[in-house]
Design brief:
With 241 residues, the protein is α/β, with parallel strands linked by helices. The protein contains 13 helices and six strands. The protein has one domain. Helix content is 53%, strand content 12%. The protein has a six-stranded parallel β-sheet, with helices on both faces. Strand 5, helix 9 and strand 6 form a beta-alpha-beta unit.
Length: 241
Amino acid sequence: MTIKEFITKIYCSASKYPDEIFSTRGKIYTCVNSFSYHIFRKNPELYKDMDGLFVDGMTMCWWIKALWSHRVPRLSFDMTGIAVDLFAKLNQSDESIYFIGTHPKYIENTIKQIQSAYPGMNISGFRNGYFNSEKEREDEIKNIIRLKPDFTIVGMGLSLQENFASDLRKAGYKGVVFTCGGFLHQTASNINYYPEWINKYNLRAFYRLYKEKGLLKRLYYVLLEFPLTFTYDSLKSKFTS
């Protein structure tokens, strides 16, 4: 997958959101940002397997606009983006949803938060995102296929969640899959993770650095590596195509 294909998939995904994205079955979607870009460079085939890519982060939106002249919205799977649109839709329909991800000690509280906010949503099941063996992982894939939820939300962290979504579809799942990164973990204590003023000024990345331990190491990728590599890859693509 080239960077041009990467950008095209992002632009096309945004243009189909939300109606076509929510209504077309058998598709898998994930989010990318200035941190995960280095994962794309190392493993482009992982993202090629996704049917759509959404940008989670204003930094990447700005750079895409500057270097590719495409205006794309920030569409993360959280309560400031895809999740709030999907949950509102499901709260008024018979379609079902399944959640898998985060640590065992968080997932039940997360589901309670979601159920409280969207009492009309049909949650067909949920599970934490940790497996003790490959067989346990395979059994969970079979379980989701057996339940036949219309939507499955996977929050296992980069690469793990994309691989799970891909394997789920390959095993025969016919619904729509969204990966959600840290959303299930963030929602355990409050469905609205970000304060309103944080959203207003697009300070979500800095808020996460403040709230979540272990994210400071991401600054290297976000502030240094991404601008350099994305610019290099973009210009190289334009001059060599």
